[in-house]
Recover the amino acids of this structure.
């Protein structure tokens, strides 16, 4: 359920019908549930990061400086990277928990109510009696289908002392995964260190270079990055070289994914099985290293651009070289995005968050990368068919996901 805040003179977009956990779904939904495979045995994922309010103003086209224009519609709903990703994970069937901070104001109460309605456990969210909850103004350009975000952080900010040891232990109890969106880095580091001690795998988002992010990445088992982050963080000459650099610099990382919008995604997976890596090197001791940029071009030639649904091509386990960086043994994957018809594409707000939510589900389900990347791309494309980060997030019963969940 989307929580739409009353806004004067606003046209609120229609809210999709959903069912609360206590209500009985219609017979058709129950039948579809029965046809789905069992949900992951351990479905608890903990997220640490931002949850706020999005004010989404749709306009005919992005304004020029000093213009005065009118919205074509206005929607107010929950947002924030962690809030969006965990909402996505909840709709797919996981049991997410959130560590964040809001104020005890109208917006803060709405943030919590909306998350709870989608099945996100907010018992570890800190509520400040004074201050303001975070919010973001989002300008949705109907002409280019892009969005521009102007974020105002909440106050007072979350600090480690806000989170008691009891609350931390409770939040991590039974967790299959920890997801960090890179915000509230001091608290996130505290949670990550405890998760590492408990051997809870950690996924870190690299949206942009942030204070404290390096410390979080050192503890990460998985990383998902925006298109600009890998080269900005590594100063490598290309995105593939940057992915090699990330695996070289962060020996704990099992895989790193970079999302590329309509161009899909790239993923570099380390060969973490020592036996496989040793066997590969023993059987091909004289094999030459493959330049990662050349390998990417070879993989791109294998893509079928006539297929509208997301697909994936991959290399075998290979010694990958990036000039001036080093080598890693692993596999390179090229994932495509769904070709969404222009008439159906509404808004890219939250596309990256939904991709991460789907990857969390995939890891908990032990999906192989060949299935995980198209699945996450499909979830993201579904999100882009509606205005706002959460309006279009699919449930596990969505027919468009059936082939990925079978």
């Amino acid at each position: 359920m989307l929580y739409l805040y009353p806004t004067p003179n606003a046209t609120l977009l229609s809210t999709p019908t959903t069912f609360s956990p206590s209500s009985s779904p219609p017979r058709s939904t129950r039948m579809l549930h029965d046809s789905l495979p069992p949900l992951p045995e351990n479905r608890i994922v903990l997220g640490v990061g931002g949850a706020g309010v999005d004010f989404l103003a749709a306009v005919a086209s992005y304004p020029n400086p000093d213009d005065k224009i009118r919205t074509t519609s206005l929607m107010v709903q929950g947002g924030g990277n962690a809030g969006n990703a965990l909402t996505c994970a909840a709709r797919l069937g996981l049991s997410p928990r959130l560590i964040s901070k809001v104020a005890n104001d109208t917006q803060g109460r709405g943030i919590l109510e909306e998350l709870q309605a989608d099945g996100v456990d907010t018992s570890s969210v800190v509520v400040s009696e004074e201050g303001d909850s975070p919010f973001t103004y989002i300008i949705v350009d109907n002409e280019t289908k892009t969005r521009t975000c102007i974020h105002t952080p909440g106050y007072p900010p979350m600090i480690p002392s806000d989170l008691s040891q009891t609350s931390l232990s409770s939040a991590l109890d039974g967790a299959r995964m920890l997801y960090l969106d890179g915000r509230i880095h001091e608290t996130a580091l505290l949670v990550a260190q405890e998760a590492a001690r408990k051997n809870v795998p950690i996924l870190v988002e690299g949206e942009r270079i942030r204070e404290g992010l390096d410390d979080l990445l050192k503890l990460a088992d998985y990383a998902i990055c925006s298109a600009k982050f890998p080269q900005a963080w590594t100063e490598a000459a290309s995105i593939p070289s940057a992915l090699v650099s990330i695996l070289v610099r962060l020996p704990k990382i099992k895989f790193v994914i970079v999302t590329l919008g309509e161009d899909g995604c790239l993923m570099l997976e380390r060969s973490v099985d020592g036996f496989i890596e040793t066997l590969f090197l023993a059987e091909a001791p004289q094999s030459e290293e493959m330049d990662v940029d050349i390998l990417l071009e070879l993989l791109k030639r294998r893509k079928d651009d006539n297929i509208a649904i997301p697909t994936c091509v991959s290399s075998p386990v290979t010694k990958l070289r990036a000039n001036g960086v080093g080598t890693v043994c692993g596999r390179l994957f090229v994932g495509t995005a769904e070709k969404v018809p222009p008439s159906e594409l509404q808004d890219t707000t939250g596309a990256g968050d939904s991709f991460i939510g789907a990857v969390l589900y995939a890891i908990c389900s032990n999906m192989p990368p060949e299935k995980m990347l198209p699945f996450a791309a499909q979830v993201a494309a579904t999100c882009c068919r509606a205005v706002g980060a959460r309006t279009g997030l699919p449930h596990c019963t969505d027919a468009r996901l059936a082939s990925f969940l079978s």
